[in-house]
Amino acid sequence: MPLRKMKIPFLLLFFLWEAESHTASRPNIILVMADDLGIGDPGCYGNKTLRTPNIDRLASGGVKLTQHLAASPLCTPSRAAFMTGRYPVRSGMASWSRTGVFLFTASSGGLPTNEITFAKLLKDQGYSTALIGKWHLGMSCHSKTDFCHHPLHHGFNYFYGISLTNLRDCKPGEGSVFTTGFKRLVFIPLQIIGVTLLTFAALNCLGLLRVPLGIFFSLLFLAALILTLFLGFLHYFRPLNCFMMRNYEIIQQPMSYDNLTQRLTVEAAQFIQRNTETPFLLVLSYLHVHTALFSSKDFAGKSKHGVYGDAVEEMDWSVGQILNLLDELRLANDTLIYFTSDQGAHVEEVSSKGEIHGGSNGIYKGGKANNWEGGIRVPGILRWPRVIQAGQKIDEPTSNMDIFPTVAKLAGAPLPEDRIIDGRDLMPLLEGKSQHSDHEFLFHYCNAYLNAVRWHPQNSTSIWKAFFFTPNFNPVGSNGCFATHVCFCFGSYVTHHDPPLLFDISKDPRERNPLTPATEPRFYEILKVIQEAADRHTQTLPEVPNQFSWDNFLWKPWLQLCCPSSGLSCQCDREKQDKRLSR
């Protein structure tokens, strides 16, 4: 009898330990992604004037990764890699042309249906899954109701946000991302037509050439057609591409920036509150700090960095609201939180008034749309109080693709065996079980072009980075491609290097001093190893449909979504209507 009584407490302890172990191995997961936030923006990465106390609190309570790398320096391919754990070139989500992101909601390209996201894996393991905010990975394929690329077809139970991205064109008075296109397709042709008409008229008046009236009318008709299409584009682009959705339904078209971050925060908080008894995955994908910049009246004009700083500080407030809610619900210890940016700050973002609308990449060269460190080295913060020791800093190379295998393993989901997963499980690094990154090589793509390779040899502190080509900054000597607003990846926009440009990032993180055979005795040996790795890597790339082909990229009217019963105006505001009804 005494032996039996002794067994009962031991059994209770065993079951309690099993329950706690199960909870620790299947945490709630919150993945927070900023848009175009530079590594030099948060206080925990060295900024002394931008106030980010909540992002800093997250870092002090967990691990700060100092060499965390986006798999691409552009929104769409970076997010595709993040969601799938694979280089975007493997899924066709990397462009061979100038434009590397989707610009129309009614394009047919997007994250292919055969790609597996971490949301799909976690949903299959019983997680409740939600995406709040920006998607930018496509919408429909063949009809406007097939939603083949929609978040709900890629593993999310719930979606609230925008299917495309935040653009200057979405906010009246903030300019346009199509300025270069307008110049080439509208203003220059109109000028040519105007000069031609005046020349013909003068020749006709002087009697030097008799020009039929039909020629004049044809040129006038062509000018009128170009002008009509241009004005139509200006009028309709915003409602057709800048709208808010809840699941498959448009709820605000065009979207309003009024308290937009607050609305995203409320939606995220309500999702957490609905799932306190079940494991959940929340992807909170902010529109901040991509232009057009915005902030609510509580933050406007409050920072030391103008409208950009106001937006950063509002986003930080939102992060704080989520952290506070986890504390209130006593979920903090059982929740893994990850904070990052999809790529580096957009250094060329300067308004027509000369205001800086891009962030800081700290000491690093370049920015968004190129593979200098400023374009791909991003904030990487992870916190899980029950498991990860607070206050750590890890300098090893890691990638945003690593989130896929990390959360899959934590959720108990086996990785797909029918495809290459390029990400690596971060937990051995985060728990201190490993001191070295599992990434010996990382491949840096400029759209679909292999731009550079990073090599971190085992048992070495060196981190070699070889560029096969580099962007031509303009003006010469600047830190970006200001003439074209972003850097492009081919032709006259780049300089090819033979032999490749080689840096040791561990000693020269600013990438100021390329190595030579005179300064690095192993120069050719290092480049040989890197080239062999690049060759092995490219051999693993199957031919896949190009999601950025002109057929997939261009606007298709039959795929265009509009508010029900809104007619040709494509305008509605169910957010405002629902708010009135709830009063």
Provide an overview of this structure.
The protein is built from 14 helices and 16 strands. The chain is of the alpha/beta class. A hairpin with an 8-residue loop joins strand 13 and strand 14. Belongs to the sulfatase family. This is Steroid sulfatase. Keywords: Calcium, Hydrolase, Membrane, Metal-binding, Signal, Transmembrane, Transmembrane helix. GO terms for molecular function: arylsulfatase activity; metal ion binding.
Helix content: 25-40%
Query: Poorly predicted ranges (pLDDT <50, ≥5 residues)?
Result: 3-24
Spell out the helices and strands N to C.
Answer: HEHEHHEEHHEEHEHEHEEEHHEEEEHHEH
Task: Give me the count of strands.
Answer: 16
Strand content: 15-25%
Whole-number mean pLDDT: 93
Shape: globular
Give the radius of gyration.
26 Å
Structural class: alpha/beta
- How many helices? The count is 14
Distance between the termini: 65 Å
The major pleated sheet works out as: 12 strands, mixed
SSE blueprint and pairings:
Blueprint: H1 2-25, E1 28-34, H2 53-60, E2 63-69, H3 75-84, H4 118-124, E3 128-134, E4 158-162, H5 179-206, H6 213-241, E5 244-246, E6 249-253, H7 260-274, E7 280-285, H8 306-328, E8 335-341, H9 373-376, E9 377-383, E10 392-394, E11 398-399, H10 403-411, H11 427-430, E12 441-446, E13 449-455, E14 464-471, E15 494-504, H12 523-539, H13 550-553, E16 572-573, H14 574-582
Helix pairs in contact: 2-8, 5-6, 7-8
